[in-house]
Amino acid sequence: MDNINKKDYYEYVKKKMPKPNYLRNCIWAFIVGGLISDIGQLITSYFKSAGLDKKSVSAATAIVLVFIGSFLTGLGLYDRLGKKAGAGSIVPITGFANAIVSPAMEYKREGFVLGVASKMFIIAGPVLVYGYGSSIIIGIIYLLLKK
């Protein structure tokens, strides 16, 4: 086997890698993200027409969207949608549900404690930790500057 230096190998790999179609990817992300938002708006309108107050409508809409994202992930449909839509399926709250359910399903063979429970937050866990942590720090800074 020929010894190849890193630069030549990098050039070889660069030639062989498929080039992404950024315009098509952006359009798909826009369409799918828009459709998810439209579905969320339909759910919101339904709960408003049912007579719920503003806080309850927001909570119910989030719950339904998380359920839909989790259910579609369980059926294996959300991952296929994500391959086509990219960020359009990841950014909405349904993408968060997918990030929680996917690892849990992947490790379900290892049991509920060592598999599902321990791996459920493997992707979303760091996001939650840093999100909560930064919100606490910002809250403390705000409290100190407010005085």
Which segments are poorly predicted (pLDDT under 50) over 5 or more consecutive residues? Answer: none
Fraction of residues in helices? over 70%
Number of continuous helical runs: 8
Q: Give the distance, in angstroms, between the N- and C-terminal Cα atoms.
A: 70 Å
What general outline do the C-alpha atoms trace?
A: extended
Mean pLDDT: 87
The main β sheet shows up as: none
According to DSSP, the number of beta strands is 0
Please state roughly what percent of the residues sit in beta strands, choosing from under 5%, 5-15%, 15-25%, 25-35%, 35-45% or over 45%: under 5%
Which structural class is indicated by helix and strand composition?
mainly alpha
Q: What integer value in Å does the Rg equal?
A: 21 Å
Give helix and strand order, one letter per element, not per position: HHHHHHHH
Pfam families: SpoVAC_SpoVAEB (PF03862)
InterPro entries: MFS_trans_sf (IPR036259), Spore_V_AC (IPR014203), SpoVA (IPR005562)
Keywords: Membrane, Transmembrane, Transmembrane helix
Protein name: Stage V sporulation protein AC
